[in-house]
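hey can u check if this looks right to u? its 567 residues, i copy pasted from the old doc so theres a chance i mangled smth
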Amino acid sequence: MPYAIARIAKLKQASIGGSGMHVSRERNTPNADRSKLEDNQTLIHNDDRHLPLGEIVHNKIYSVPQQRKIRTDAVYAVEILLTASPEYFRPDDLSRYGDYQSDRLANWTAATVKWLKQEYGDKIVRAALHLDEATPHIHAYLVPTDENGQLNCKKIFGGRAKMFAFQDNYAAAMKPLGLERGIRDSQAEHTTVKDYYTVVNAASQELDPSDLQAVQARAMAYARMQREHQELQRRLKFVAQQRDELAQKLAMTQQSVNVQTQINRALTVSEPLISIGQIVCELRLPLGQIKEGTEAIDLVINTCQTDLAGATQWLNQKFGAAATIGLVNDRVRQIVTEQILDRFIPPRPERDKWGEVKDYLISTKQLPTKLVDRLHEERLIYADKDGKLICLHRDFEQRVTGATAIDLKDEQLQKLLVEGSSLTSGFHYFERDPLVDTERVVICDDPIEAMAYATLHLPARPTLYLSAHDGGFVPGNKLSAIEIIVACDIELQNLPARFDRHLPIEDSWMSDLKSELASLTSGQIQIGERDDKQIRVIQEIQQKLLGSAQQHNSQKNPPLDRNLGGR
């Protein structure tokens, strides 16, 4: 099976000229057949095609004023190498280097150029087709600018998720040609553009062109290697599919076992169920008119035109309590099973959106990178398909019970409870394992506020940060033996009798954090690069802020809170 192949090389300013000279064949290319140089084609270009590649890239970047000075080690361009495995271009004989079927080449070239234009538009400043080497391939040069025209390679190719998406998209575009994608997320090490040409050039230098027999032997060996590689890929793909199917079956089996375990723990049937024949007799119904598969409890409910409670009373009168419990428990088991299987399903994470959400939390909200990364790695926060921040709710047995979606595009950061979420059985919290080593709980009214509070106040004791929902219900019965700090001024329900209240100096802990960071750092610590330095800064914040906050809160909060149980 032939494969679609896509590789990239990130080019700094000093590397652009050499790459451009290689593609335009202004530099000697040992593995290229000079008799076929005229077959090479320029597929995408602007009016400045005569200019060196470095100058073309420079003009593209500065066609829009750059808001920041570009670093010397920045990625100025990305070289994209696109091709297919040799068996696509020459299916009859892989050993015939440089050969290709014209119709296949034309179809592949047209599909690739279409994909480049649709996917990247005018970011592609040049694309060239090389036909003077062993296998046809395209070099395309992309200037990685964002929607505002600012140079930003991470926006397009930052992280594994975006690289996966790049290869997925190209493979999908080539699928109508019969090309397939390699095994996704495999452990195979892929050759980079630079490494590929290093190997090819070295092989060309070692080979004596006059030794035709050696050339043919190497060609046959390569063809055999390609066939073996193709067979290995087929087997690996089959094994991967088998693995996924077994994992899915295991997950379903585990789910069924968990459901049954919960049912057996809650319900016990001590008496045999009442037979359908006994029910029919008591209801004085003709047995022959009862449909096969009719449940006994449903027959009572429908015939007596009642509900489950009325059917239970009728069964108890006819057959006694023990037999009735057995039959009703069977129906309860069905209801409970359906409810367990129909548990809350959180929104699906969207990897491509996480970069924007993370950048907002770190750059705009000035939260520490390490804190944001840790909560994301623990899957407590992530981004959904709309770019909203999703904060998962859990009960104290780590089961997901709901989620809060925060619209970061809204100036007020509107919070929405995801459909199906429970308001009382779970909450968004983080830090230590709940109620194991925890000695103190801080309650905030918002997940972002909780992160700001945790940043401002480095805990001397194991602390859990919990966000209350709309309605203000908190698990007070679970927290009665732990020190409680209420760090918000909303009305809360189910609070323990004893708690302290600690409010921010400004309108929020987020505002306090920004003010203190601005005054203490004096602009010397860059956002997103401050974690190590921030520890020292936060210690200064803690000393400065706590003294002011205690004085502020003594005026803002009436002594009634402490009289109700403050420590």
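Residues 276-341 form one domain.
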